[in-house]
Write a structure and sequence with these properties.
Blueprint lengths: L8 H22 L23 H13 L3 E9 L6 H14 L5 E4 L3 E2 L5 E9 L4 H15 L5 E5 H12 L6 H18 L4 H25 L7 H31 L4 H28 L7 H32 L27 H11 L1 H16 L21 H12 L8 E6 L3 H9 L4 E7 L7 E7 L2 E4 L18 E8 L6 H15 L6 E4 H35 L3 H28 L8 H32 L1 H28 L7 H33 L15
Antiparallel strand pairs: 1-4, 1-5, 2-4, 3-4, 6-10, 6-11, 7-8, 7-10, 8-9
Length: 721
């Protein structure tokens, strides 16, 4: 930059200060929203399903039949012997007191088990209220009032919802502390500077604050759906991505400082050298995330724009806030190991012995290129074999929380004394004139314990049914002579209630729903099946559909972006293939670890989809960082020398970025939710594979072996190597 074009000293100070003040204002506004996320988030699975799902259609009409939108909690009591009169009276007294709690709509009488050793209470909780808080109050009351040798648990859909919400506790406290702490330690080790890690972390934290501010108001306006897992992923993604982009900028700034540039010139040179790869990298991640808009699940669709907003602010922070900070601080950011003139220059000939880890690796790649990329590919393909062991077709709700779960323990006790599906029935909505045929068909299905019908005339809200002579007969409740109740009719339809033999959250119960729907489809009945189990089934089926559709779309989108960035066809195709093999290897190793080491019961169908989105989008980041620098060097030094120079120039920064990203995603493991723990392992392990094998060995060795043809059909493919 010529002296005439150099900005005045006033502008060189004022512009960075203005940028810093703007980001400080944004961070101060967004920071308080960490404590308000619960106000706009939901963990209700049924709200994520498409309108076309049968369970959604039933869910929308539950209030018409049951008199309100409620979620059931089951309070189950047992003792080491048959319950006596005093104990049953105590259970009924507890039920009466539960009915006085705010948020409780209805409480059933105490229901003894057939073996006489247990009793249960069905508690209907207002689904539009604070379900977790109400369940907590019920649990406190039960723990205080259950006497006479009784043990009690609160389970059922409301119990599992509360346990899941509790599992997400700490997502905006512990998770952030662990992630930021891990990043800080890695940066201190890499840069051996007390100040630079703080500047990088400020870049990430302020990006997250402003992103959260934007997302909160979008969720408040019901434009997006925010839940616990999306929130956790947003936090980790912004911290990891912003740190990655910041490290790329810092590497360029360090080069400029080492070349003797003054702080303003170093900041502008670093910006010019990093803006294209950062925008290309962030744009690729955003494009991959926005492919989730093709999902039929609202939670997946929400993650696309929410995470994209986070990535956008991560890029903006790395390209404005960090440059402003470094323009003000200058070389002091690297104290006490300030780069000196010549320290950041690349060796002239990397095919000859040279000092430094990356220079040595570059020489090894140059001498053994074909062997290196073939062996790397073989190792990744061998690791991919474990994919055959992957179980990702859904897990019971009772297995979602890895820590202690009162709902899971209570479900086990419930299954010992009652039909396992008690309190979480299937609901079948059918025209009134088809009710008898439907009831008979439902009762004949394996996995169904009993069938009833919703009626306002019965104290419990439903009556047992039987079919006699092709007509539906409702069993009268109460003393002899009590009139038989009449079914509740809404829009010409009635609602059957089927109690499952298996636990409502089990895969066996889902199979019952699937078989029942298949049986109905083979008749002329106009019936739809819903309920908690149906919601789980429809969610799993929709997730499987989503990953089948979205994964190929992401590959095509990322491929096109790479072609535009590298002005080549062959290089992007090879990069995509390398990332696919790397993802398969990560998934294969993860499947074996989940099954053989951790003993997980399986996985959510969305885990492979999310893992793919992050590993392809983020894994391609490092290839973009590498290959954009290789292309830059190839223009001046030829392709093969450019590959080696690019490997050395980006080796340190990409390895640091990979370690940071792996550490931040691994931090998700502190939230003891099966989905997040599995995603944390897959992405963290996959990022390390990309960092140390794909980007350090496979890609440079393959590109070096191919030579200038890697740039086909651009002009670089015709330039002498």
């Amino acid at each position: 930059m010529s002296p005439a074009s150099t900005p005045s000293r006033w502008l060189r100070v004022a512009l960075p200060l203005v940028l810093v003040v703007i980001w400080l204002a944004g961070g101060s506004l967004g920071g308080p929203y960490f404590g308000k996320v619960d106000e706009v988030s939901t963990n209700d699975q049924s709200s994520f399903l498409p309108q076309s799902a049968e369970s959604t259609q039933v869910q929308e009409r539950l209030g018409d039949f049951l008199g309100g939108d409620a979620i059931p909690a089951l309070v189950v009591f047992d003792a080491d012997r048959a319950l006596d009169t005093a104990q049953l009276e105590n259970v009924q007294a507890v039920a009466d007191r539960i009915g006085d709690l705010e948020g409780v709509q209805e409480v059933s009488p105490a229901i003894p088990s057939d073996d006489g050793e247990a009793a249960q209470i069905v508690v209907s909780i207002d689904a539009s209220g604070e379900v977790t808080d109400v369940v907590g109050e019920v649990r406190d009351l039960v723990a205080a009032d259950a006497r006479d040798g009784l043990s009690a648990w609160v389970t059922g859909p409301a119990g599992f919802t509360a346990d899941l919400a509790t599992g997400f506790t700490g997502i905006d406290g512990l998770l952030l502390l662990v992630a930021l702490g891990a990043v800080f330690v890695i940066l201190v080790i890499v840069y051996r500077s007390p100040l630079l890690p703080i500047l990088v972390l400020l870049t990430s934290v302020f990006a997250l604050c402003v992103a959260l501010l934007s997302v909160w108001w979008l969720a408040k306006a019901e434009i997006v759906v925010l839940n616990g897992q999306v929130q956790g992923i947003l936090f980790i993604l912004v911290i990891g991505a912003a740190t990655d982009y910041a490290l790329l900028y810092v590497a360029r700034f360090r080069e400029a400082i080492g070349a003797g540039r003054r702080r303003w010139d170093a900041a502008t040179d670093a910006w010019k050298g990093s803006v294209e790869p950062i925008l290309a990298s962030g744009g690729t991640v955003i494009a991959g995330l926005l492919c989730l808009l093709l999902s039929d699940l609202a939670s997946n669709r929400a993650l696309g724009p929410i995470a994209s907003i986070g990535i956008a602010f991560a890029m903006l922070s790395a390209l404005t806030f960090l440059p402003a900070l470094l323009a003000l601080v200058g070389r002091a950011a690297f104290w006490p190991f300030i780069p000196k003139s010549g320290m950041t220059e690349l060796p002239a000939d990397l095919t000859q012995p040279a000092r430094g880890l990356w220079a040595t690796l570059a020489r090894f790649v140059a001498r053994r290129a074909r062997i290196v990329w073939i062996l790397s590919t073989v190792v990744l393909l061998a690791a991919s074999v474990g994919v055959t062991q992957l179980k990702a077709d859904g897990v019971p709700a009772s297995e979602l929380v890895l820590g202690a779960s009162q709902a899971r323990d209570g479900q086990a006790v419930l299954a010992e004394h009652f039909p396992a599906g008690s309190g979480s029935p299937l609901y079948v909505i059918v025209p009134e004139d088809e009710a008898a045929e439907a009831a008979e068909l439902v009762a004949d299905q394996a996995g169904i314990d009993s069938v009833g019908i919703v009626t306002a005339d019965a104290p419990s809200g439903q009556a047992d049914v039987a079919v006699e002579g092709g007509a539906l007969v409702l069993t009268a409740q109460g003393p002899p002579g009590t009139p038989a109740p009449a079914p509740t009719v809404d829009g010409g339809d009635v609602m059957l209630v089927a109690t499952l033999s298996d636990a409502a959250d089990s895969l066996a119960a889902e199979d019952t729903v699937r078989d029942l729907r298949a049986a109905i489809s083979g008749t002329t009945l106009d019936a739809v099946v819903g309920g908690t189990t149906a919601v789980d089934l429809d969610t799993n089926d929709t997730s499987i559909r989503d990953r089948t559709v979205i994964i190929p779309v992401i590959l095509v989108v990322v491929l096109l972006i790479l072609m535009l960035l590298l002005r080549s066809i062959l290089a992007p195709v090879l990069l995509i293939l390398s990332v696919i093999v790397s993802f398969a290897a990560a998934l294969g190793v993860s499947a074996l670890v989940f099954t053989e080491v951790f003993g997980f019961p399986g996985g959510d169908p969305a885990v492979p989809l999310y893992g793919f989105v992050f590993l392809v989008a983020l894994g391609i980041d490092y290839n973009i960082f590498l290959m954009s620098r290789v292309r830059e060097e190839s223009i001046h030094h030829g392709t093969r020398r450019g590959i080696l120079r690019g490997l050395v120039a980006t080796g340190g920064v990409i390895t640091s970025a990979g370690l940071v990203l792996a550490a931040t995603f691994a931090a998700l493991g502190v939230i003891q939710i099966l989905f997040l723990v599995q995603l944390a392992f897959i992405v963290a392990f996959g990022v390390l594979l990309d960092t140390f094998i794909v980007r350090s060995l496979l890609v440079p060795a393959l590109a070096y072996d191919i030579g200038k043809r890697i740039w086909w059909p651009s002009k670089l493919a015709r330039v002498d190597d």
